[in-house]
C-alpha cells in the first residue's frame, strides 16, 4: 500500500466538495503524543500563512468538537479544519526527524503543486472549446485511475466495469444510465457521451470520477456491490452539491459538438501555422 495513503484516509470533504483534514487526526498521524505540542507547530504554520499574504482563517478555521467525559457529560474541545495548504505549512514546521514528516512533506507538496498547476492552466483557457478539450483529456486520465481503483476493489471484467460506471452516472443523472443519457441527449448508440459534454458537465463528471477513486482507495472498499454503491453515492452527492449551489442539472445541459471534431480542427490549425512558418 502507498505510504501516502495514511493522509488520504484522514481526508474529509465538506458539503460543497472541498477537501480538508482535521487537526487532531493529523496530530496523531504525525506522531505528536500531546495536543499542546502540536498547537505550537500549528501556530507557526498560521504565522507562515499570514506572512505569505493569505488569511489564516481561510486555511485554519476553528471548529468545536464535542467529546464525552467519563461521567457521561459532554465537553467541547478545540479543533481545526485544515486546508491542503494549511497541512503543507504544518508539515513544513513539524519535527523533520520523524519519517512520517518526510512522507507528509512529499505528499502535501506534490498535491498542492499539482492542484496549482491545474488551476493555472485552466485559468489561462479562454474559450469553451479549450476548456472542453482540457477537461476531456483530464477525464480520460482519471477514468484510467478510477478503473484501476475499481479493479483493486474487485471490479474485474469489462461487463462488471460497465455496470460500475453506470452506477456513477445514475447517481449524478438522477437514475439515468449511460444509454438513457444518450437517448436524452439525442446521441447515437456508438457515441461516447463524454465527447459531447460541455465544460460544466465535464467538470461535474471529473469530480465524480476523482472522488470515487479516492473514496475506494481511502476506505479500502472491496467487492463489486460495495464499489457500485460507492460510485452511485458519490455521483448522487455531486448532484446534491450542484442543486444546493443552484446550478443546472447535468441531464438538462446542452449537447455540444464532438470532442473528436474539435481535436481535428485544432490539428488542422496547428498544421496550417506550421506550414506558414516554413
Explain this structure to me?
The chain is α+β, with helices and mostly antiparallel strands and about 280 residues long. The protein has two domains: about 5-120, no CATH class; about 125-265, no CATH class. It is about 65% helix and about 10% strand. The protein has a four-stranded antiparallel beta sheet. α5 packs across α6 (about 100-125). The chain is globular and about 60 Å long.
Q: What is the averaged pLDDT score?
A: 86
- Strand element count: 4
Catalogue the unreliable spans: none
Structural Rg: 22 Å
Q: Compute the number of structural domains.
A: 2
SSE ordering: HEEHHHEEHHHHHHHH
Instruction: State the distance separating the first and last CA atoms.
Output: 52 Å
Strand order of the largest sheet: 1-2-4-3
The tally of helices reads: 12
What is the strand and helix layout of this fold?
Layout: H1 5-9, E1 11-13, E2 19-22, H2 23-29, H3 35-51, H4 56-59, E3 62-68, E4 74-82, H5 84-92, H6 99-123, H7 128-153, H8 158-172, H9 178-185, H10 199-218, H11 224-244, H12 259-277
Antiparallel strand pairs: 1-2, 2-4, 3-4
Helix pairs in contact: 3-5, 5-6, 7-10, 8-11, 10-11
Identify the notable features of this structure and list them briefly.
single chain, 278 residues, alpha+beta, 2 domains, 63% helix
Q: What's this, in brief?
A:
The chain has helices at residues 5-9, 23-29, 35-51, 56-59, 84-92, 99-123, 128-153, 158-172, 178-185, 199-218, 224-244, 259-277, and strands spanning 11-13, 19-22, 62-68, 74-82. With 278 residues, the protein is of the alpha+beta class.
Amino acid at each position: 500500500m502507498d505510504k501516502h495513503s495514511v493522509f488520504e484516509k484522514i481526508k474529509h470533504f465538506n458539503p460543497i466538495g472541498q477537501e480538508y483534514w482535521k487537526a487532531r487526526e493529523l496530530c496523531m498521524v504525525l506522531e505528536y503524543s500531546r495536543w499542546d505540542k502540536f498547537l505550537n507547530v500549528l501556530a507557526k504554520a498560521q504565522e507562515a500563512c499570514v506572512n505569505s499574504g493569505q488569511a489564516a482563517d481561510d486555511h485554519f478555521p476553528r471548529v468545536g468538537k464535542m467529546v464525552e467525559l467519563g461521567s457521561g457529560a459532554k465537553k467541547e474541545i478545540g479543533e481545526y479544519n485544515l486546508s491542503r495548504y494549511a497541512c503543507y505549512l504544518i508539515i513544513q514546521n513539524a519535527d523533520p526527524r520523524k519519517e512520517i514528516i518526510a512522507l507528509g512533506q512529499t505528499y502535501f507538496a506534490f498535491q498542492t503543486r499539482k492542484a496549482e498547476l491545474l488551476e493555472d492552466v485552466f485559468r489561462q483557457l479562454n474559450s469553451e472549446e479549450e476548456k472542453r478539450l482540457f477537461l476531456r483529456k483530464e477525464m480520460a486520465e482519471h477514468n484510467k485511475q478510477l478503473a484501476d481503483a475499481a479493479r483493486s476493489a474487485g471490479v474485474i471484467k469489462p461487463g462488471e466495469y460497465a455496470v460500475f460506471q453506470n452506477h456513477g452516472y445514475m447517481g449524478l443523472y438522477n437514475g439515468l444510465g449511460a444509454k438513457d443519457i444518450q437517448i436524452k441527449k439525442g446521441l447515437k448508440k456508438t457515441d461516447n457521451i463524454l465527447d459531447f459534454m460541455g465544460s460544466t458537465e465535464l467538470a461535474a463528471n471529473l469530480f465524480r470520477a476523482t472522488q470515487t477513486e479516492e473514496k475506494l482507495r481511502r476506505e479500502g472498499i472491496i467487492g463489486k456491490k460495495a464499489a457500485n454503491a460507492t460510485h452511485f453515492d458519490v455521483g448522487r452527492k455531486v448532484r446534491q452539491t450542484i442543486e444546493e449551489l443552484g446550478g443546472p442539472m447535468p441531464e438538462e445541459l446542452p449537447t455540444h459538438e464532438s470532442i473528436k471534431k474539435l481535436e481535428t480542427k485544432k490539428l488542422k490549425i496547428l498544421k496550417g501555422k506550421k506550414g506558414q512558418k516554413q
